[in-house]
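re: that chain from earlier
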Amino acid sequence: ADPELAQVGRFVYNRGNPFSGVAACADCHGAAGHGTDRLPRLGGQHAQYVENQLKAFSKRERTNDNAVMHTIASKLTELELKAVAAYVSGLK
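^ sequence. v structure.
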């Protein structure tokens, strides 16, 4: 719904944030967010769902990730978190 926010999310999804140590989501989940046999598909998920899951990983309320997602999600700013969620919801 917010193309400018999604553009920020596109940057973080594809390149991460080298200043804060956030890894690129695409490195594991793929450029189109299709995931793998071991990692979930992100492309096309509802933005609010993705946002909620990233917050849960950040707070360690969700722990099925061997701490990988906690390490990444805990470094995301609120803006980055919302932006990535907005971006992946538009992937096909």
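The chain has a mean pLDDT of 95.
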